[in-house]
Amino acid sequence: MYTDVKTILDDASRNNYGVLAASAINLELARGLIAAADELQSPLIILMGQMQMTKHARADVMVPLIRTLAEETNVPVALILDHGRDWEVITHAYRNGFSSIMIDASAYELEENIRRTKKVIEMCHPQGVAVEAELGHVGQAALGEQTDDSCYTRPEDVTEFLNQTRADCLAIACGTAHGQYPKGVTPEIRFDIIRVVKKVTDVPIALHGGSGSGDENIKKAVEAGINKVNVCTEIFNYVRDEIRKTLEQTPEIDLLSLMSRTEQAAKEIGKHFICLTGSQGKAANFQRKSAFQYGFAQTETDGGE
Ligand code: 13P
């Protein structure tokens, strides 16, 4: 069932669990991840990043693919533009049927972040497209930015930011960073920040840079109040390593079988993270609405004009 992140995350926030948000750059990853969600009867969020869209698979190619796969399962699946920074990319995603958009204006000062976020929300909300925004700034693991506490979300800004923007989900910076940490480094997640943010708002909150956090830390982050857990690098690495192992063991494997193995690997690692976030079985909380339940807007008759 193709849906949006607000539908999924409002339930997660109400019922205190997390939902995996994972990158799918091709058919095999999308099928593997959705199969994982289907088997565990869990909601799922598929991420597609701005760079992926500009360099590899455009929205007009990927959205119909994800949407078709999502409609083949009874579990809710949302597709979100991850870290939309440029207006052109955001509008491209919006026009091409993403159910959800992330506007990342976190590199700007609070006021400019609010202005840019509001602009995207004013476009998206009237069309039922859900919007995630970022407050504080989640940096890059390769630059060690997870330890830069000047980037962490200031809980005292949260209420104003959400009152002004009406974002449907808030990504916070609390000690993780995107990408691969140097060997031996595990981020120190500030669970206290998560707890305080959760206290001041009902809006679902997202943890970015989930890779390399360690399984126990992800569970603890969800317990503290995280509802959306973004994981990309660790999933890509797992799938890559499984492809490598398969090629080492069977170098002459035919391509179709290799792609099946790729899909299987995506399913395995997807299941692992779904179990960490605690969303298995939660698909039961969502019911597909009959088209007739939506009804029609009541309009005055206009004589057929
Ligand atoms: P990682 O690649 O570090 O898991 O980050 C994923 C992410 O947060 C995408 O927005």
Automatic annotation (TrEMBL):
The active site is at 82 (proton donor). Binds 2 Zn(2+) ions per subunit. One is catalytic and the other provides a structural contribution. Zn(2+) 1 binds at residues 83, 178, 208. Keywords: Metal-binding, Zinc. Zn(2+) 2 binds at residues 104, 134. Gene3D superfamilies: Aldolase class I. GO terms for biological process: carbohydrate metabolic process. Its cofactor is Zn(2+). GO terms for molecular function: aldehyde-lyase activity; zinc ion binding. It comes from the Bacteria. Dihydroxyacetone phosphate binds at residues 179, 209-211, 230-233. PANTHER family: D-TAGATOSE-1,6-BISPHOSPHATE ALDOLASE (PTHR30304), D-TAGATOSE-1,6-BISPHOSPHATE ALDOLASE SUBUNIT GATY-RELATED (PTHR30304:SF0). This is Ketose-bisphosphate aldolase.
